[in-house]
Amino acid sequence: MNEKVKAIPPSGIRKFFDMVSEMKDVVSLGVGEPDFVTPWHIREGSIYALEKGHTSYTSNKGMKELREEIAKYAAETFNAPYDPNNILVTVGVSEAFDLALRALLNPNDEVIIPEPCYVSYKPLSYLCNAKPVVIGTKEEDEFELRAEDIEEAITRKTKAIVLNYPNNPTGATLSKKRMNEIANTILQNKIWLISDEIYSELTYDGSHTSFASSEEMRKRMIFLHGFSKAFAMTGFRIGYAAGPEETISLMTKIHQYSMLCAPTMGQMAAIEALRKGKEEMLKMKEEYDQRRKLIVKGLNKIGLNCFMPKGAFYAFPSIKSTGLSSEMFCEELLKKEKVATVPGNAFGRSGEGFIRCSYAASIDEINTALERIEKFINNM
Ligand SMILES: Cc1ncc(COP(=O)(O)O)c(C=O)c1O
After folding, report:
1. Cα 119 to ligand 1 centre (Å)
2. One fold for both 3-38+279-378 and 40-277?
3. Which fold does the domain 3-38+279-378 belong to in CATH?
């Protein structure tokens, strides 16, 4: 068996879901996926594909129609004009991220990964024989990354940095000022940016600014986005990467051998989402926003300090006042009060002392979870 694969730990999130699956009456703030069913007209996009007999492979890069819609959407929504030929449709952002690393990295290259971060960044970099270099973001900065911390981590071997704003697990976004400073650091040091902007539509205070809105940055970055979160389409498995021609063509080469193409029915649904899905997407966003305010207020009232996240659907309260480790807190809370959350250290060492609470759950579920968390803390 492969030694590298044997050496990587299983995802810390999965361990908790396995425990939850064996229990009854659990209120879950654990999962990182929308609780909404995909809007009906988008589902119909897939049904229509089946009815018409569109059941074969598409071109490796993805349907031309879809890539054209993505190009239009990226230009209109993110002010990021991309040629449809420089867009690759993938099996979720998950595949796009893996391809980006494999296309960019040579053995022993360093890739800077700010933590806490999405669980796959570090293991997938490691599997590329690259060296993940972790830098921590801090609660006092509301988990925004500082350009100085990137500067400090850069060495001659640095090839790329991975950024994810709005962020999973913290819900942080980047201010324009910080973003400009980071962009300058990336450009001056001639490193690559892999920018996972999967939660960009779910930005609540103000609007999302993409790194890809800068022409200079577009030459040094791979922009990743998809349909799982804002359009509630996790099971359709459609994402995409956009970037300079050479990078996308290398990514396509790997994709054509390892994946062939993204699911055809999913691609048809994605076209429908881009053409007619905005209204329903905004409705879901509005609901998340209400839940965000409810959960953050509730957590602070209970005594778990929580900054107001500006994006995604996660609150990231501190549990330091309880004296428990993140894992202990989540395990005990699950066993005693049947509320599922995820320990912050599942997202990296700097997540210790925090828990991730997903508010992709109904208002009733959030209220019940808050009552139970309060009871748990009062009985400690
Ligand atoms: C930051 C981030 N990137 C990527 C993904 C995976 O997305 P997809 O369903 O498009 O593979 C997730 C899913 O939780 C995520 O939180």
Report:
1. 9
2. no
3. Aspartate Aminotransferase, domain 1 (3.90.1150)
